[in-house]
Amino acid sequence: MPFSESFFARKFGVTERDLNRYLAEAMSAGGDYADIYFEYLSTTTISVDESIVKSATQGTTLGAGIRVIAGERTGYAYSDDLSPEKILKAARVAACIAKGPATVDTIGFTENPTRDLYPVLTAPTESSLAERVALVKRADAAARAADSRVFLVQAMYADNLRHVLVATTEGGLTFDRQPLARMGVSAYVRNGEGRPQNAYSGGGGRVGLEFFETVKTPEYFAGEAVRQALVQLEAVDAPAGETTVVLGPGWPGILLHEAVGHGLEADFNRKGVSAFSNRVGQQVASPLCTVVDDGCISNRRGSLNVDDEGNQTQRNVLIENGVLRGYLHDRLSSRLLRATPTGNGRRESYQHIPLPRMTNTFMLAGESDPEEIVKSVNKGLYCAAFGGGQVDITSGNFVFTASETYLIEDGKITRPVRGATLIGNGPESLKHVSMVGRDLQLDQGVGICGKEGQ
Questions:
Q1: Phi-psi bin for 97: left (phi > 0), alpha (psi -120 to 50), beta?
Q2: Residues 6 or more apart from 245 whose CB is under 8 A from it?
Q3: Stretch 402-422: mean pLDDT, rounded?
Q4: Which element (helix H / strand E) includes 76?
Q5: pTM exceeds 0.85
């Protein structure tokens, strides 16, 4: 698509001449590099509580952020007004923050190659609000009808459509249309006057509403939430002490995300505060472990045609057969570490600077039969689903709560347990992986991750 037909050119009259003016102003006090990020975001959020639509909100935000890099310094400023005067003012502020010797001249733009990992013809935000409200009501009704012990249901749906434009002093010009939708259900159950239990299920991705009609329906999420909650009614307290843990496929990969993935983001390693710093080429995990970050999987929630710096996402091998191969980079870390950008520069909005962040991060399938893995354990835990977790990047120590867990006794999955908390060390845990199942699954796309306030 020619730039003149792109979203910001059509809706706001942005021209390549404007982009050159903004970047020239950003470089007016010197620097090595500058870029400008335009964002237009439409959002919808719907929640149902006690079978009543408690909220249904829609909104739009827009703005532009300008970044200047001079050595290790970064100047950043933004404007929520797309008038040339306001953007030029933001450019001057960013220039003053990162003032340094000028090493770059702005050149003519070349549109970066494009692809479409999420060919959604009609984004959810472009559908009627009534259609989306109906989905949430279906989830509520299905959960309540699933079992007489259900006494409370909370269902939600959220979507957004983000239009972005990135222009750089290296001549890159990138624009993208990024749909995203997800829904979730919380179910609360109780036996008589007994202690209530609850569980949550949800998912989504860069999809249209048809995903929730044909792939993962409201009834599916409702059924999963109720099933997991009912399991907790029969659960016993989790045992304490050191034990063998078997992780199920899918959502338990959150342990890999927190305990390992964050430690492989390049900003932590550039600063030398990660447990994986200066260890490229070293054996850091069991030879059974190959970990990748892949932002190119069609329709996945973590996928993007381009990252928030205009670089194409890609498949990055982080750990190969236990050997550390590299880190996840944004443009700043790749410049300072003299590495190639990996397409992992991410930001929450135009108000934030890019940071190295994960896309779809997972361990490749192994060769072990899932049943044989369980049979190999005399006494331990089988974790089918997790709640939240956190990690200390420097030490690698992690803490996770498991929301659906079972005892393994004499090689068989037996009683469910509640209150299981896993405590350990990410790098050490990787070294002791003894079997990897061949039943690879990615999670359903419902998790939310935070980093440095984003």
A1: alpha
A2: 380, 381, 382, 383, 422
A3: 95
A4: strand 73-79
A5: yes
